[in-house]
Amino acid sequence: MDTKNIERRCDSMHVVYNEDEKIIRIKNDAGKEIIYHSSLDLDPEYDDTQYNFRIFFKNDIAENDSCMVYDKATKIRMGWMIPCQALFSREHEYADDQYFQKYAYVAIVNLLKFNFSKLCGCDNVEEKLIKLYTMDDLYKNDRSILIISKENTAQIKGFTLDEYIPYLFSYGYTCCDGALDISARELESKHINLKKISDEISDNFFVKELFESMWRNNLSSIVKFHLLYQIIEILIMKVFDNELKIIVNEIKEGDKNLFVLKNRISNITNENYRIEKLFNEYSKIQNEDKTELVGMCKKFLAASNNEIEQDDSNSKGLGKYIYKVRNLLFHSYHTIPANERGQINLINEKMLKIIIDVVVSYKNIM
Amino acid sequence: MLSIIEDKRINSKNIFVDFTIGEYLNFADDILDNNSYQRKRVRKSNSVYSLLKSDLKVGCVIPPIVLAITEEIPSDKDGILHYIYNNKNKVKILDGLQRTYTIIDAFNELEKEEREVFKNLKVRFEIYSGINKFGILYRMLTLNTGQTPMSTRHQIEILYKDIVGTDFNGMKIVSELDGRTNNPSKEFKFSDLIEGLNSYLKRDELPMNREELLNNIKMLDNLSKEKVEQDVFVDFSTTYFYYFSHVCVQSPINVEEDFDYSPFGKNPIKAFNTSQALTGFGAAAGKMIDFGIVKSFEEIKKDVDKIDIKDDEWFFVLIENLDRIKKESKKIGNSQRMYFHYFFRELFNKDGDSYCNLQKSAENGYQKYRAQV
């Protein structure tokens, strides 16, 4: 095998990589060609067609922030998350990493193919510089590329990337332009360990849609709260269904106090009660997060002259306080002092984090 | 027909002369090799050059091709041709590269009988004689007003590429293809020097963006202030080499192998033999000259003699700051350039607290850098 020129032909695109010159040439069937000069050393060992990619946005991405991405449950490595800027520079600490160089090659070839017609249009000026700048213009500082190995993800039962997108939010990666207002989760040993949406809700289109295309940072705070609350609405309906099933099963088993059962049925029709159940029994949320959100809700309600009970411990009663905030926003927004409305943003930020933990950990109790 | 005018701006003769296409073809291929850094030819079949080729075959008149020769040449047409035939490697095309390709293509496509007729057609030439490299650069920029623009950086590369592989003011200049320099204390990459000069002319250490690439106005403005008699590339390089030899080569510092991070450079030679340091220096020198902090590269050289290089701590401060930049920056290369820019500004500013003090320059330069990002 000629190691200087690596050629592949597929998808009606012919890719040639010259290792000595670090030049990628891609030609389509119509004979149009783009030439890309890489500043990185690339390793063309991997076949770029065996990978999928997706672009994400993140606030304050550093060029050095490349990391491997794993499915937490199976510990299978899905691929790499690479800041786009890292593909155009050899100054970061991964530039000489042999695995990074393989994935960087895959990333660059995929991006070049994806932007083929755009890049083809600029061949009447200095090819080398303009094309490098064009890629740099297309993929600015705030973008990262997630490169996923088809072979590896085929080992994850029922794998689809969109089920992992909510959890990527918790690391600060969003699908839509604009910075995400969230305190990003820390990497574990420089890895992203992803959890997917719970199997019990993965068929719900809205949950995915919210994270893939609806959530933008420039939405108003009340819209954001409303969108997040829709997830709660979806899930507390499931809680209701499940609780009702449990009660019905108990009735079938006989010897139950019907009065007690009647009270339980009455409870599960109560939205407050179901929200409490959702946060405490049907999902796993950090106590610390619950406590913080309860505190934020209380502060906001107090500032808006709502009555707060003094005797709740902080992490309990989250359901009740979220419900009160919801009612305030939906029924009495006009009563909130203008200088207190900023608190809704803080509530949203914490609520987003909690909702992400809820959707990945939701499980019907038996 | 021959006409000679003195170009007083660049101290050169401008000779206007006709050659036949046949006379031009006798040296065209050879001088194309002198312009190997220039744009590749435009190959589109429906381009304006394709149309020009058809028109040439039927005898159209094309705009003058502009050539440059650094030496003084004879003033008569035969003398000029004789000189060119014997000194093809000294002739550069300032304007008309694509037209030259088109002429060659047109000739090659003709049948034998048609070629004799074609060779007798005339083409006008403007030849700058006795022009120095800076003058060539200036003229190339002012001539390059449209169609398919070329960046100043590229033009500088064309002009100075003959120093590659040579000893240039005490340092060997190597090309990109040679890879990382084998002996960084005595070798510099040509592309790094060009970037450094570019940064000096632009007064900006950052790589050119697309707008700057196509619009050289700011650089042209700065170029126009430079003295034509002096070669700014030589001044820039020799000053930097002087600093490099005095501060870096003389330094015994070498970072241990088991350092807890991978440093930007294990010693001052490796750290300062980089495009980041050169562009930082270039931008700093340009800015300081503009602000009147220093008058010339000569003055910077004199300041280098005053730099105290007794202790090593300055270098550890420098590489620690560079490591912080690597971890936090959105674009590491650009941030490193900026830091070097402020480092040199601190080092050579007589009015500042860090004047000729490497450690203070490394510290205060970092503060200034942080204030910008």
Keywords:
heterodimer; A: 366 residues; alpha+beta; six-stranded mixed β-sheet; four-stranded antiparallel β-sheet; 13 helices; B: 373 residues; alpha/beta; five-stranded mixed β-sheet; 17 helices; 11% strand
Q: Any overview of this molecule?
A:
The complex is a heterodimer of chains A (366) and B (373). With 366 residues, chain A is of the alpha+beta class. In chain A, 44% of the residues lie in helices and 16% in strands. Chain A has 13 helices and ten strands. Chain A has helices at 84-87, 98-114, 116-120, 127-138, 150-153, 165-170, 205-214, 221-253, 258-268, 271-280, 287-303, 318-331, 343-361; strands spanning 5-10, 13-18, 23-28, 33-37, 51-58, 67-71, 76-83, 143-149, 173-174, 191-194. Chain A has a six-stranded mixed β-sheet. A four-stranded antiparallel β-sheet of chain A has the order 1-2-3-4. Chain B has 373 residues and is an alpha/beta fold. Chain B has a five-stranded mixed β-sheet with strand order 1-2-5-3-4. A three-stranded mixed β-sheet of chain B has the order 6-7-8. In chain B, strand 6 (167-168) and strand 7 form a beta hairpin. Chain B is elongated, with a radius of gyration of 24 Å. The termini of chain B are far apart. The mean pLDDT of chain B is 84.
Low-confidence stretches of chain A: none
Question: How many beta-strand runs of chain A?
Answer: 10
Strand order of the largest sheet of chain A: 9-5-8-7-6-10
Number of helices of chain A: 13
Order of helices and strands of chain A: EEEEEEEHHHHEHHEEHHHHHHH
Instruction: State the helicity of chain B in percent bands.
Output: 40-55%
Q: Would you report the number of β strands of chain B?
A: 8
Report how far apart the termini of chain B are.
60 Å
Helix-strand category of chain A:
alpha+beta
Radius of gyration of chain B: 24 Å
Main sheet attributes: strand count, strand direction, barrel closure of chain B: 5 strands, mixed
Shape of chain B: elongated
How much is the radius of gyration of chain A in Å? 25 Å
- What is the beta-strand fraction of chain B? 5-15%
- Mean of pLDDT of chain A: 86
| Residue fraction in strands of chain A | 15-25%
What oligomeric assembly is this protein in? heterodimer
Largest interface: A-B, 21 and 25 residues
Helix-and-strand structural type of chain B: alpha/beta
